[in-house]
Amino acid sequence: MNRLSAMNDRVAADLAADDRSRGLVHAPVAMDRPFRYFEELFPLRGAILPRADAVSDAPELSLDGTWEFRLSDTADAAVDFIGDAAPTGESWGSIPVPAHWQLQGHGAPAYTNRRYPFPVDPPYVPHENPTGDYRRTFRVPADWQVERVLLRFDGVDSLAKIWLNGTEVGVISGSRLRSEFDVTDLLRRDAENVLAVRVHQWSSGSYLEDQDMWWLSGIFRSVTLLGRPAAAIHDHFVHADYDTLRGEGVLRVESSTPARVIIPELDVDTASGAEVRIPVQPWSADEPRLYDGELVSDGERVQLRIGFRRVEVVDGVLLANGRPLLFRGTNRHDFDPDTGRTVSMERMRHDVEMMKRHNINAVRTSHYPPQAAFLRLCDELGLWVIDECDFETHGFFPVDWFHKLAGNPAEDVRWRDALVDRMQRLVERDKNHPSVVMWSLGNECGTGENLGAMARWAKERDPSRLLHYERDWSCEHVDVYSRMYTTHRDLELIGQRQEPPFPDADLDARRRAMPFLLCEYVHSMGNGPGGLAEYQEIFERYPRIAGGFTWEWFDHGLRQVTAAGETFFAYGGDFGEDRHDGNFIADGIVFPDGTPSPGLHELKKVFEPVRITVSSGEVVVRNHYDATDLSHLAFRWSVADDGVEVAAGDLPLPHTPAGESARLPLALDVPDHDPATERVLTVRAVLREPTAWARAGHEVAWGQSVVTERAQPVARLISPVPHGEQVTVGSAILDDTDGGLLSLAGIEVDAPRFDTWRAVIDNDRDFSWEPHETRWREIGLDLPRYRAGAIEVGAEAVVVPGRLGFDGSDLAFDTRLTWSADEAAVSLRVQAQPLGDWDVPLPRFGLRMSLPAAFCDVEWYGPGPEESYADSSRAARLGRWCRTVEEMQTPYLMPQENGNRRHARWLRVASPESVLTITGDPHVDFTARRWTTEDLAAATHPNELRASDRVWLNLDAGQTGLGSGSCGPGALPAQRLLPRSFDYTLTFMVE
Ligand code: IPT
Question: To test the ligand 1 pocket, which listed residue (115, 176, 365, 444) has its Cβ within 8 A of the most ligand atoms?
Fold first, then answer.
């Protein structure tokens, strides 16, 4: 019996009485049979106390590699593999360590968001409890001059029992937390050692680890043997404060063993425990200044990478080194499409570098501590980190334990030791990273006094860092007020400290004085998010708001290959799970293979640390960095006519410290403007020198504005010519009964027809906060029907009045199509007027037509090159862009509307024989695909989409924005396409 089980018995009776007095039905932490060791509420056994992650010269032996492995269906297989005799029998094979067994051909991954995939019967787990037995042998290197030897596990999901040479070493629980054991006395120094590990997929810990991610098991992080010399430094704690008034670092390094603190660059050579004050440059994400040194005892040299910084709350504002800190953050899970939560050093570096290149300055390690090496990268390359404990009990929410019953682990005292232990293991391992500025108690665990116990311990151990936890809105145990998926409007109130009061007046007053952050926002499931820029504007308006962390970095799609050899990324249900949450696992701004999704381009633009506002007379540059001036950036201007550069040069910038602006009058030497084109001025800020994460010339920010608009050409119209059952208008031939286009300069077209539908995006779907799809289908927007009226052939145009209706609905549009032509081109004016009581925005409004498949090369002048939507358009810049139709598709893991290019001035679609130019007046939103909207909507994975023999063009007045309704607010009112009168003209020219 461990120390908690003893306590359980003691408190159980009191607790039940207390619950009864509060009118609570006691939660069934059933005791109908004794807990098995993996069901103990605090199952950890044998581990040494947690201590700091350290890089040192003490010897280490990696035990990663190939291990013997057997998977059983239950926890009951014989313990017949822990001794010297190598196991035999068919059930044994091999497996790499670290890895998840489900991704190595044993069992299958499964995805649920918050629902536990087993009965909610804590702390019991089902009899079917996949159990992996692992075994390997190793020898201790002969040259190790060590006093003690530790065995370290960096991550085992979810619970393991360990034996060395046949003797039990201990039990690990806490999947993403490090555990270490002193195995000195069990080791054979001159012979082979047998290390055996039994890992259970389900344990009491599974109740504490209900994060929204794949259920994946096994030894998925490294296993290491650590030689500990005599007088080794068992633990150390670097306190490196930055005194903002004096510009001094205040350094004290505690060491478990007396040691010297040596930092050559600062001329520091002092005893551990002593405080020194030295003038330094502070550490920040902008300028991650590290001072390298060593902590040297008689037995070990530990690497020190010291960053001096102070993160504090002053007058309700979050400050870093005395200046307001704004998190431009994202939530990151450890993830790899082939190896799950086993991630390589290269993959982590790729993540951090990519974040830096996209103007991200902060990470929340949702919802568990990452591999230790990740934090070293954050120290080195510069990211502020909220380091989160491995704790989430979301699955108690659907069964209402957060409210009605007292069983939620955050509240039930019987779980307290396990939870405080989790917090200790987080803080102790990661306490020396300058990048870590807040500890987070966990995610989605409801409320409860156990959170208080975790918080109190952490505060006492590390008073230098702030505490974060989102789900307890009283904020009783934390230092910052945090929420997720808040609407823009509510955020605005919070910014003004005008949010609705919390019922307890004292807690309300305390909370109202706190800074605020959005620990999750802009849910990036499928196509989206929209509304990011509007959030940023609010963040920047109110000093109380310390920014936010977008949800989330990765789409967690697992790479699979079909029998036909096609690759796709799997989501929930693709492994035959009985219950799952589908593609809710694909809600990142980076595709599983590490390529950016359009949302990341938008985020880079919105997160720009330099805001460049261009007008014809001046450029205003505002420095939004937290710490640096702009001397590391070169500013370049260029003037382009319809996307063709006609002049360019450098723009010298005066010294502009953080938080300040420079205003530069412009007197540019540029050639005369061709009135048939649009003239645009662009100013770009690029890195002068290479950095650890980008090359010289990397673009950090840009600003753009139209300086001269295109003059409208005066066209001489030619008369329509009726003949037989057709009418010719320039190079267009129309059907004289309904005005349908039969051919265009000899190209066989599918006539443009009205289209109001889009392949619904995840943010439109029935589970969304604004499930527009339901209403759209009720109205019949997916089934538009057009009826032409009597066509009028006039001297200068053919006019086709009509009515656009929807199956089963009396809502409609009165329409009017006007065809005309001059010598060069054919024009189609599209007008529409809504009829009836519309109560919902439209998915889209426009025309759909098709061309033969050979028209597969697209060039356009307008915002680009990536897709853009009404509320995700900041990243798109005016220019001339070329893409094949294939390249214009975005492979969202669940196919849905994508690839829209907004506000094109013109587009050219080319086949080897001819080029069709379509001009929009005022401009046109377009998509080009090898399949129809219906094909797109029907596919469940991108590899199912098959190119047809047509190229389908949508030429739209607009589409409703994206929002982030799949878990958050829908598109803002101004970015919804409300039924209104539409009037735009398309001009077709064939060469
Ligand atoms: C929020 C979770 O914290 C996060 O892990 C993820 O599941 C996200 O939702 C949705 O993708 S919690 C939710 C109740 C807002």
Answer: 444
